């Protein structure tokens, strides 16, 4: 384990789900890889009656990635990933195809928006975190989505840019209409990285019920030094979590041998009504036995007031997990 594994939060130029995928077919021009994970997760939390309850959040993900060369510098690609939890139907997380080359990649279908790579600066926990990193549909993973991503070397530093446009009528997002998001990360060789992004989408509404455009802006910064990683995220939104919401997340990680320790603080506020939407401190430890198997424990200290949100929504949460990647 080294700083590059922790700094995956600021790489974000490709789909991380295929990192451990196994190639099952290849010839002179084409290849096909299969990967995924099995993840057992036991979530312990108090319910509204005050009783302690264990929820089984175990899941499995399977992905298939295909690639074929068109010319020496241009290729075509396709990617599918599904997730299944007990008692539910398969959720198609990704379902897209496109082309790539030195210019980057262009995909269409169900794929990631452009602001996930910004929230990834601080969204580094095995389970908790990212409570101040909620995104409008067009900036998150959604269908009917035309997306571009490119990564460029700038004399030892790296610039990653993403842009996407979501067309009206995505059946997975009900009334959501046209929207877009853009983002950029500038990562310096000395360990410092900066990220910023913006997104808009019609089909949201104000608290009064009037139609409105959801808008949000993110800014992030991180620094990696040896086995230490620290990052901060700021969000400002309109007509999404509230008519006006602002929040931030701070994250810190330390790698000791094969174990990574992470702590985060999340805060999100409805500015018009002076109501806390999120307020928590979370810690976790993840031990990597090898590149394929890890176990983790994660605890969230919830600072919300049960009088405002109910006992269950304000209770602390403890999670034990084991994950096998293939």
- Main sheet specs: 16 strands, antiparallel, barrel
CATH architecture annotation name: Beta Barrel
Order of helices and strands: HEEEEEEEHEEEEEEEEEEHHE
- Any idea what the CATH superfamily is called? Porin
Which structural class matches the secondary elements? mainly beta
What would you call the shape?
Answer: globular
- Kindly report the average pLDDT value: 91
Measured by DSSP, the beta-strand proportion falls in over 45%
Span from first to last CA? 18 Å
Q: Count of helical segments?
A: 4
In which range does the helix fraction lie? Answer: under 10%
Low-confidence stretches: 1-17
| Structural domain count | 1
- Please give the order of strands in the largest beta sheet: 2-4-5-6-7-8-9-10-11-12-13-14-15-16-17-18
Q: C-alpha Rg, in Å?
A: 20 Å
The CATH topology turns out to be Porin
Explain what you see.
The protein has a 16-stranded antiparallel beta barrel. It contains four helices and 18 strands. It has 326 residues and is mainly beta. The N terminus is likely disordered. Keywords: Membrane, Signal. Its main location: membrane. It is a multi-pass membrane protein.
Topology:
Layout: H1 3-6, E1 22-26, E2 30-46, E3 52-56, E4 59-69, E5 74-85, E6 91-101, E7 104-111, H2 116-119, E8 142-154, E9 157-166, E10 179-187, E11 192-205, E12 211-225, E13 228-238, E14 244-256, E15 259-270, E16 275-288, E17 293-302, H3 306-309, H4 311-314, E18 317-325
Antiparallel strand pairs: 1-2, 2-3, 2-4, 2-18, 4-5, 5-6, 6-7, 7-8, 8-9, 9-10, 10-11, 11-12, 12-13, 13-14, 14-15, 15-16, 16-17, 17-18
């Amino acid at each position: 384990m080294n700083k590059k594994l922790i700094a995956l939060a600021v790489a974000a130029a490709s789909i991380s789900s295929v990192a451990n995928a196994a190639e099952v077919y290849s010839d002179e021009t084409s290849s096909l890889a299969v990967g995924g994970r099995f993840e057992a997760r036991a979530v312990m939390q108090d319910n509204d009656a005050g009783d302690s309850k264990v929820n089984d959040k175990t899941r499995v993900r399977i992905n298939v990635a295909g690639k074929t060369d068109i010319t020496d510098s241009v290729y075509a690609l396709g990617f599918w990933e599904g997730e299944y939890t007990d008692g539910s139907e398969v959720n198609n997380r990704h379902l897209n195809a496109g082309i790539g080359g030195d210019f980057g990649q262009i995909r269409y279908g169900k794929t990631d928006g452009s602001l996930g790579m910004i929230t990834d600066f601080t969204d580094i926990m095995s389970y908790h975190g990212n409570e101040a990193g909620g995104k409008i549909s067009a900036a998150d993973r959604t269908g009917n989505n035309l997306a571009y991503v490119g990564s460029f070397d700038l004399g030892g530093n790296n610039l990653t840019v993403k842009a996407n446009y979501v067309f009206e009528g995505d059946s997975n997002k009900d009334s959501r209409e046209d929207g877009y998001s853009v983002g950029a990360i500038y990562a310096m060789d000395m360990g410092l990285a900066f990220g910023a992004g913006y997104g808009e989408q019609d089909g949201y509404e104000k608290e009064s019920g009037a139609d409105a455009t959801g808008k949000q802006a993110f800014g992030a910064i991180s620094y990696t030094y040896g086995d230490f990683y620290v990052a901060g995220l700021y969000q400002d939104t309109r007509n999404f979590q509230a008519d006006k919401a602002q929040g931030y997340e701070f994250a810190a990680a330390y790698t000791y041998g094969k174990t990574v320790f992470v702590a985060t603080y999340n805060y999100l506020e409805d500015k018009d009504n002076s109501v806390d939407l999120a307020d928590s401190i979370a810690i976790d430890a993840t031990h990597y036995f090898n590149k394929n198997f890890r176990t983790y424990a994660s605890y969230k200290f919830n600072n919300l007031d049960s009088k405002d949100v109910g006992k269950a929504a304000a209770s602390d949460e403890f999670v034990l997990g084991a994950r096998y990647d293939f």
